[in-house]
Specification:
alpha+beta; Arc Repressor Mutant, subunit A; elongated; 4-stranded antiparallel β-sheet
């Protein structure tokens, strides 16, 4: 597989960095290839660095004592993950596993911190990344704790519509089983909700392709639920 470190410039971490700083980032990055289903790190592993996805998809999740998995986030090209331990000095707080064949850039903690000392603008970019991540988790906690599953699904479908820039049809980037975990439910419940939404004329489902027949109604459902 060809070297893809040039793709680092698309990461939020690199927003506004001059070419010479991008070159310095590439010099300390280590490109790593993974097969589908490979473990990148486990909850409790030493946080010796962080990653940026160059190609593929990575899920970050927690597993309960009973063995139930809760997907926290799905990361795609350009997105960093595992960066918190770089600054806290603590172990990784979750598991990371590839969902597809993936290429990652790894930044060791020691080399990245040394680079930050030389280029403080990197610290500001990392702060922006962490602030965005905190906001994402705040929204996720709100969705999981305050919204019923149909509202969570409607919210997620509308998020995909914005992300994929298509208000009429979206493609699920993960399996429906993984989507159930992301939404904090079980596959059987999610299937019933898909069927119910289809019966109500809100959506049409064809494999991973979801047609949003009534986006305005989905928006109302995502905010207010069913009265």
């Amino acid at each position: 597989m060809p070297n893809r470190l040039h793709m680092i410039e698309n990461a939020p971490l690199c927003n506004g960095l001059p070419p010479e700083h991008l070159d310095e980032l590439r010099r300390i990055a280590v490109e790593k290839e993974y097969h589908k289903g490979d473990t990148i790190f486990m909850d409790g592993d030493a946080g010796d660095g962080f990653y940026v996805v160059l190609a593929g998809k990575v899920k970050v999740s927690k597993v309960s004592a009973e063995g139930k998995e809760q997907i926290l986030h799905i990361f795609g090209p350009g997105e960093p993950f595992g960066e918190v331990p770089v600054f806290t000095g603590k172990p990784f707080p979750a598991n990371a596993q590839t969902l597809t064949k993936s290429v990652l850039a790894f930044f060791s903690k020691s080399r990245f911190i040394a680079l930050i000392h030389a280029n403080p603008s990197l610290a500001l970019n990392m702060l922006a990344v962490l602030s965005t991540r905190l906001r994402q988790f705040t929204v996720q906690v709100e969705n999981l704790s305050l919204k019923e599953v149909p509202e969570r699904l409607a919210t997620y479908l509308l998020f995909l519509a914005r992300e994929q820039e298509n208000s009429e049809q979206v493609t699920l980037p993960i399996s429906k089983g993984q989507l159930a975990s992301l939404l904090g439910t079980i596959p059987e419940t999610l299937s019933r909700i898909f069927a119910k939404m289809t019966g109500e004329g809100l959506i049409k489902v064809a494999g991973k392709t979801i047609t949003l027949c009534e986006p305005e109604e989905l928006d109302i459902l995502s905010v207010h639920g069913k009265g």
